[in-house]
Specification:
This protein is an alpha+beta fold. It has 4 domains: about 130 residues, Beta Polymerase, domain 2, CATH 3.30.460.10; about 120 residues, Poly(a)-polymerase, middle domain; about 120 residues, Poly(A) polymerase predicted RNA binding domain (Alpha-Beta Plaits, 2-Layer Sandwich), CATH 3.30.70.590; about 40 residues, Alpha-Beta Plaits, CATH 3.30.70. Helices cover about 40% and strands about 20% of the residues. It has 16 helices and 15 strands. The strands form 4 sheets. A 5-stranded mixed beta sheet has the order 1-2-5-4-3, with helices on both faces. Strands 10-11-9-15 form a 4-stranded antiparallel beta sheet, with helices on both faces. Strand 13 and strand 14 form a beta hairpin. It is elongated.
């Protein structure tokens, strides 16, 4: 099947109607105007994000409205400014303070998520005082650069990524942001051209739409690029793709190849992993273990940063103890954190080889023999080898040892992980998520 008929069919489902688009813009303008009436005269509000840029998906038009404050206002006053303004403008609506680089307010009661974010009113990137200040410049850049027909191409890309859990710049996801999607479409022209290019990506890749740098080599050296760098058109010192993990990029390439090879609307439709297939997948996978503990009550971005560090430390510890870790998966489910680990071994042999010196070095050989006098000694390829009793053989015991000696654990997790539960059986929901990620490489 050719790609174009598929794309036309998908767009009918993901593109908002003219009526819906007008409704979203009208609602955004109404909220903005109400908010501005509650602000001092030298303050203003501005609509940003996908609604402002016209790239939002059907039934997912979350609003981002920025309160722009003068540059002479102290940063520590921003949270109180936005909270006061929201409370004054919308006294009957529920609101909640959230945290990014600095606090913002989430406003409820409009059948969608509305985030009210404080930022400085800047014209040039050199004036910025916080990371969110760029967002105003991002919105202006995309609105001035993207063609009307390319907005649908962005929608296709967003839907494609969302369905495969590759969309979102949160630390939890480490995926493609909406802004990155827009820049990629501007760079490659359209959705299909992007996917065809991705099929043949050879790393490192440098994308510099505004040509700030003289060569790709200069970008690679400047950003120490491992896979892909997308230079921010409004800030030449920032890599828009920095948050995207290697796994997300590699997965995107694999799915792009599959779509180009055999286009289908199923690539744009989210389907949960079939529970009936879990047993067959379990037979094909190695040994799966789960480590679960109570979720700390901290901000998601901090929590996920700590969890990723924890996952890497656990894997390193297990590999240092000779276990072959094929993969791991971290998920928060309600009030629990679950880390799923796939190991080639459940239990290691009770003996471990210790490499000794070459036979030609007599003094070193004699010293080695004294140290390992109770061991069986061998000569292999001209070297002495001793066999010693292995200290940790079972996978569960290795995990318990890691937790017991957890002095290097992330500070926010130390208390919770001490009471963790280790099991060779994982929750069905976790298994379905884990297998969903990996089925793409098989099918």
């Amino acid at each position: 099947m050719e790609a174009q008929p598929v794309i036309k069919e998908v767009l009918k489902k993901v593109k908002p109607s003219k009526k819906e688009e007008e409704h979203e813009i009208t609602l955004a303008e109404k909220i903005k105007e109400t908010l501005e009436k509650a602000l001092p005269k030298n303050y203003s509000a501005r609509i940003t994000g996908s609604v402002a840029k016209g790239t939002f998906l059907k039934n997912s038009a979350d609003l981002d409205i920025f309160i722009l404050v003068p540059k002479n206002v102290k940063k520590e006053k921003l949270p109180e400014i936005v909270k006061t303004a929201v409370k004054k403008a919308f006294p009957k609506n529920k609101n909640e303070v959230k945290y990014a680089e600095h606090p913002y307010v989430r406003l409820y009661g409009f059948d969608r998520k509305v985030d009210i974010v404080p930022a400085y009113d800047i014209t040039f990137i050199e004036e910025r005082a916080s990371a969110v200040d760029r967002s105003i410049l991002h919105t202006g850049y995309i609105k001035g650069k993207i063609k009307d027909w390319q907005k649908d191409e962005v929608r296709l890309l967003k839907q494609f990524l969302k369905v495969h859990d590759l969309y979102g710049a949160e630390i939890r996801v480490q995926g493609f942001s909406g802004y990155l999607c827009e820049l990629l479409i501007i760079k490659y022209g359209d959705f299909i051209s992007l996917l065809k290019s991705a099929c043949n990506w050879s790393f490192p890749i440098a994308i510099d739409i505004e040509k700030y740098y003289q060569s790709d080599k200069e970008i690679v050296e400047r950003f120490r690029t491992q896979n892909i760098t997308v230079v921010d058109p409004v800030d030449k010192n920032r890599d828009v793709s920095a948050i995207v993990s290697d796994e997300v990029i590699y997965r995107f390439i694999v799915i792009a190849r599959k779509f180009i090879r055999k286009p289908s609307k199923t690539f744009f439709e989210r389907k949960e992993f079939d529970s009936r297939r879990v047993k067959s997948y379990l037979k094909r996978h190695a040994n799966l273990f789960s480590l679960s503990f109570n979720k700390p009550e901290i901000v998601d971005d901090i929590l996920w940063g700590q969890l990723r560090k924890l996952g890497k430390r656990i894997v390193k510890y297990l590999e240092d103890n000779d276990f072959t870790i094929l993969d791991y998966h971290i998920r928060c489910r309600k009030n629990k954190v679950v880390i799923l680990l796939e190991s080639l071994e459940k239990e290691l042999p009770n003996k471990i080889p210790v490499m000794g010196p070459q036979i030609i070095f007599e003094k070193h050989v004699e010293a080695f023999k004294k140290v390992h006098r109770n061991s069986v000694l061998f000569i292999k390829n001209g070297r002495m080898i001793a066999t010693e009793d292995r200290r940790i053989m079972k996978f569960e015991n290795a995990l318990k040892e890691f937790i017991k000696n957890g002095k290097d654990l992330p500070c926010y997790l130390q208390k919770n992980i001490k009471n963790s539960k280790i099991s060779s059986k994982a929750d069905l929901g976790i298994l379905k998520e884990y297998f969903f990620w990996r089925k793409v490489f098989r099918e």
